[in-house]
Specification:
Chain A is 46% helix and 15% strand. Chain A has helices spanning 14-38, 43-55, 69-79, 95-99, 137-149, 184-187, 201-211, 225-237, 242-253, 264-269, 276-292, 300-311, 319-323, 328-338; strands at residues 59-62, 84-88, 100-107, 112-119, 126-130, 151-154, 157-160, 166-171, 192-195, 270-272, 316-317. The radius of gyration of chain A is 22 Å and the shape is globular. In chain A, strand 3 (100-107) and strand 4 (112-119) form a beta hairpin. By secondary structure, chain A is an alpha/beta fold. Chain B has 2 domains: 8-79 and 108-186 and 209-215, P-loop containing nucleotide triphosphate hydrolases (Rossmann fold), CATH 3.40.50; 225-325, Helicase, Ruva Protein, domain 3. Chain B has helices at residues 8-25, 30-42, 56-66, 82-86, 124-136, 171-174, 188-198, 212-223, 229-240, 251-256, 263-279, 287-298, 306-310, 315-325; strands spanning 46-50, 71-75, 87-94, 99-106, 113-117, 138-141, 144-147, 153-158, 179-183, 257-259, 303-304. Chain B is globular, with a radius of gyration of 21 Å. Classes of the chains: A alpha/beta (346), B alpha/beta (333).
């Protein structure tokens, strides 16, 4: 169990911060070994979700049903002592089904009637918003609003959400009628786009063997939720060298077809490039990755490793790309190949 | 009741008795009966699809009586609300103190066996309320969590999709059911038997054969049934060959399937095969166990392509071809 003695408000000097980063490296290994007891395979997904926890960002998860998304996310939450709620999004879900409602309550002794707020399922540390594209836009935006502001406003009163607060929203890639795809601008609010796919056969065999022969195990908690907040602060205090930050900005900006430095394939295939949030999240995710790795500085490698999950849902391809079967992943890959790396070799 | 002997041999005996009891009230439907029992002892929820009047409710309520479990039937209607399933909080006044308090009144989901009748007649939010309690075995209301009692089974029935005013269950929701069981019309002979029985005087008293504790103990036993490694691989290969994106998928899969079965299918085939083995008195799974549970596990997890519609290819056809296509591992031993 990692239990730093510092509080969130307390000043932490660089030496102590570096020490805490070292501790976290071991902590990460312990978290992973706990998660491995339940989740087999899906290394990339586990890594990305863990990074998003430490960076304090939300994830958009795309994958077909039946890949144990709920189990994966709940398990990761358990190791960090976080409360978990799953909300199944449906066409008839209303905003108040997410945020909560006010009910009238009477105090008998004073005969006064008062409105009491009943908290909705959004009041938890981790929200799994399952099949978010199945619900109409007004309900989607109720979630996205609380996601952005970490608070809920009902009837003029504002209620703070529990911290840390993460939303992991899933989208079903199977095309069918009656879905309301998230607008591009709304997708931009998610730090990562995580793709979850079928397991390789050997892993699937292992899952079948382990899940059908015993009851699920209880996991040890490795860190308290409130200490996670402290680490989120440490992540933000990690320095990033100028050339590295510049590289992140360049990666994002040349994905915009209107940018003078945009390569030809971007001009040909991209209709919308990555937003300002992209470079912000590239650096923030890079910092979290460095910290989880026990390093006190962001490298070019960190930025590159985060490019795919940060950029793929922010680059919108055009008709020509669709005709040529070019996906946004390929654009990101080619950006990584063409944008020159800083020479300092960090 | 005497000391419980939890072994596959004993379970086989008990199953024969249970089936014997069921046969007193239900005619035919042997396959559906076997599959429902497989689901029961595996602890998985079942979806039953069939025309009206094939004794779906009777089958389930009889099982509940034989196993001494509480049974609730919920008729799903277009105006059913989530709280009609899970329960509601009501305002209650303590007369002595005059204080009013919210008290939780349990909904019909608080039973061992819940029959969710015509689940696709209710709007999605209400469906989701049931499916959530199914998955999590608990109900959350007003920030408080109420656990459901074990064992907990949901048996949902659906009316055929073509009818108007239905809300088909989304794929992700269907995936939560372990088995999809078909109940069809009876043969003429069986139907005659039913008519003779149902129009005559006298009712059958069902005997109680198992207790809750027995059932839970047998469920634990099922988990310890052995699946030889080559059969796990056989099950996983069958499932992954249903995925059109899989490299090993045969051509007819690429042509007729829009999306294949996920990881849960592999898990449920293994679990279902274990349950079937134990019910037949074996502690080791054989290839026939896997083949027997394949169709009920896969049929609601495969989405057909438009092309399949045109060529009139059904999910059953596809499953049959998947089995033919996959070599059965050499006899174990």
């Amino acid at each position: 169990m990692i239990q730093p003695s510092e509080s969130l408000e307390q000043a932490i000097d660089e030496k102590r911060a570096a020490e805490m980063v070292q501790q976290l490296r071991e902590g990460r290994d312990r978290i992973l070994s706990q998660v491995r007891r339940v989740i087999i395979g899906q290394d990339e997904v586990v890594e990305q979700v863990l990074i998003s926890f430490f960076a304090g960002g939300h994830c958009l998860i795309t994958g077909v049903p039946g890949l144990a998304k709920t189990l994966l996310i709940k398990t990761m939450g358990d190791t960090l002592d976080l409360t978990f709620r799953r909300i199944q999004f449906t066409p008839d879900l209303m905003p108040s089904d997410i945020t909560g409602t006010e009910i009238l309550e009477e105090d008998r002794s004073t005969a006064k009637r008062e409105l009491k707020f009943l908290r909705g399922p959004v009041f938890a540390n981790i929200i799994l918003a399952d099949e978010i594209n199945r619900t109409p836009p007004k309900t989607q935006s109720a979630l996205l609003e609380s996601m952005q502001e970490h608070q809920v406003t009902v009837g003029g009163t504002t209620y703070k959400l529990d911290e840390p607060f993460f939303v992991l929203a899933t989208q079903n890639p199977i095309e069918h009628e009656g879905t309301y795809p998230l607008p591009t601008i709304q997708q931009d609010r998610f730090m990562f786009s995580v793709i979850i796919d079928y397991l390789p056969k050997a892993d699937e065999i292992e899952v079948v063997n382990s899940t059908t022969s015993k009851r699920p195990e209880k996991l040890d908690c490795v860190m308290h939720g409130k200490d996670l907040l402290l680490y989120q602060r440490i992540v933000r205090e990690i320095p990033v060298a100028d050339p590295v930050a510049r590289y992140a900005v360049r990666l994002a900006s040349v994905s915009r077809p209107t940018h003078p430095g945009a390569p030809d394939f971007v001009k040909e295939y991209v209709s919308w490039g990555a937003s300002l949030r992209a470079s912000h999240y590239l650096v923030l995710a890079g910092k979290a990755r460095a910290v989880l790795d026990g390093r006190f500085g962001v490298s070019v490698g960190d930025i590159q490793a985060m490019a795919m999950p940060v950029l793929r849902h922010r680059i919108i391809t055009n008709f020509r790309a669709e005709a040529a079967r070019v996906k946004s992943e390929q654009i990101v890959q080619r950006l990584l190949e063409t944008v020159p790396k800083p020479s300092s070799g960090l | 009741m005497a000391e419980l002997d939890v072994s596959a041999g004993k379970l086989k005996e008990v199953t024969a008795q249970v089936v014997g009891q069921l046969k007193q009230v239900i005619v035919g439907q042997d396959e559906a009966m076997e599959q429902v029992l497989t689901g029961f002892f595996a602890g998985g929820h079942c979806m039953i699809t069939g025309v009206p009047g094939v004794a779906k409710t009777l089958l389930i309520s009889s099982l509940a009586k034989i196993m001494d479990l509480t049974f609730k039937r919920i008729q799903f209607t277009p105006d059913l609300m989530p709280s009609d399933i899970t329960g509601t909080e009501i305002l209650e006044e303590d007369i002595s103190t005059g204080r009013r308090e919210l008290r939780f009144v349990q909904g019909p989901v608080f039973a061992n066996i819940v029959m969710a009748d015509e689940i696709n007649r209710t709007p999605p939010k209400t469906q989701a309320a049931l499916l959530e309690s199914m998955q999590e075995k608990q109900v959350t209301l007003g920030g408080r969590t109420y656990p459901l009692e074990e064992p907990f089974f949901v048996l949902a029935t659906q009316i055929p999709f073509e009818q108007e005013g239905t809300y088909p269950l989304p794929e992700a929701q269907q995936d939560r059911f372990m088995l999809s069981i078909l109940m069809d019309y009876l043969s003429e002979d069986d139907e005659v038997t039913v008519i003779k029985k149902s129009t005559s005087w006298g009712q059958v008293e069902l005997k109680r054969l198992l207790s809750k504790q027995d059932l839970l103990a047998y469920q634990e036993l099922v988990l310890t049934v052995e699946v030889p490694p080559e059969l796990v691989e056989y099950a996983v290969s069958l499932v992954s060959s249903s995925r059109p994106t899989d490299a090993t998928a045969p051509d007819f899969v690429k042509e007729y399937i829009a999306w294949g079965a996920g990881l849960r299918a592999s898990q449920y085939i293994a679990l279902g095969a274990k349950s079937r083995a134990a019910l037949s008195g074996r502690m080791t799974v054989v290839p026939e166990d896997i083949q027997a549970v394949l169709a009920p596990v896969l049929r609601h997890r495969i989405g057909l392509s438009f092309r399949a519609d045109v060529d009139k290819v059904t999910v059953e056809d596809i499953i049959t071809r998947l089995v033919e296509n996959m070599p059965v591992p050499a006899r174990v031993g």
